[in-house]
Amino acid sequence: MKDSVIVVSGGMDSITLLYEKKDEIALGISFDYGSNHNHNELPLAALHCQRLGIAHVVIPLGFMHQYFKSSLLESGANIPDGSYDEDNMKSTVVPFRNG
Question: Is 52 helix (H, G, I), strand (E, B) or coil?
Answer without folding.
Answer: helix
